[in-house]
């Protein structure tokens, strides 16, 4: 996906004329005067890449929705152990949830810094996001190792099947996200991470935040509600 | 940039963005707002962790956890994903996905209940 660097100072049309619009260009407009990252805007008035990302995320809602439904539908129907109450570690998962939430905060700060052309800050927050994502994956790897040693495998019972499928697919999304963030970080060493790259970073950010909101749901339905038996 | 200046700039940028579609996603949200949202998310997670160990709250635990989870979801989607500031059509797409997912849940729930589950 090519990013087009405009020349800035595009013609304002209709209601955008006037002091408000001028101020918009003057005060921290992420794609205002100077480099433009705007491109491929369709009839919706929204960048096609951003529109595509939101449509993808909408389809992902249904994707994860199906697996969450499967987990809930088969909850308590395992014929043998181990059971969720025996295994799930709420304190540890609360900590990993906190790590993922803070990675979302770091991500939004990275996008903001890029939009304001603060390249060093953008790189710093982007790397922090990726590292926090790796931290979350480390918690998940530890959890899986513990569960497997406790006898919970993918095929041992319905809990194992639905739990590993749901959390494993989420973990796969996090892994892809971390790879994407690290790729952006490495690319930024070559081409920078300012206004011209802000849209690319924003798209990665949307994906990353989505992974976060999916975990918010999983944490509540799978982990916290397990105390109810 | 203080909160008032940022809000004014945000209003101006938003007006410009709405009039000029190419600049979708152009918002000036103060850093302090993001930090406050991050803090609230951390506090809600701590509260969630705490209340599951309070026996007296067991009867109301499910609605409580769902409300807290929904609050976190809305904060991340609204502020971090910028749905609060972006075009409504993007929120519409996301909501459509969520509604279909919820429909799947309700449909399957009805099937399982009908079959005696």
Describe the protein.
- The complex is a heterodimer of chains A (229) and B (117).
- By secondary structure, chain A is an all-alpha fold.
- Chain A has helices at residues 19-26, 48-73, 84-87, 90-115, 119-149, 158-191, 198-223.
- Chain A is elongated, with a radius of gyration of 21 Å.
- The termini of chain A are far apart.
- The relative contact order of chain A is 0.16.
- Mean pLDDT of chain A is 86; it is low at 1-38.
- Helices cover 73% and strands 0% of the residues of chain B.
- Chain B is built from 4 helices and no strands.
- The longest helix of chain B has 27 residues, at 88-114.
- Classes of the chains: A mainly alpha (229), B mainly alpha (117).
- At the A-B interface, α1, α2, α4 and α7 of A face α1, α2, α3 and α4 of B.
- Share of helical residues of chain B: over 70%
* Total count of strands of chain A: 0
CATH superfamily of the largest domain in chain A: Cytochrome c oxidase, subunit III, four-helix bundle
Tell me the major beta sheet of chain B. none
- Number of helices in the DSSP assignment of chain A: 7
Measured by DSSP, the beta-strand proportion of chain A falls in under 5%
Inertia-based shape of chain B: flat
- Sheet/helix structural class of chain A: mainly alpha
Low-confidence region ranges of chain A: 1-38
- What is the fold named in CATH at topology level of the largest domain in chain A? Four Helix Bundle (Hemerythrin (Met), subunit A)
Largest sheet report of chain A: none
CATH architectural category of the largest domain in chain A: Up-down Bundle
Please tally the helical runs of chain B, counting DSSP H or I stretches of 4 or more residues: 4
**Sheet/helix structural class of chain B:** mainly alpha
Query: Shape of chain A, please?
Result: elongated
Total of domains of chain B: 2
Rg of chain A, Cα atoms, Å:
21 Å
Oligomer state equals: heterodimer
Overall tally of structural domains of chain A? 2
* Cα Rg of chain B: 19 Å
Helix-strand topology string of chain B: HHHH
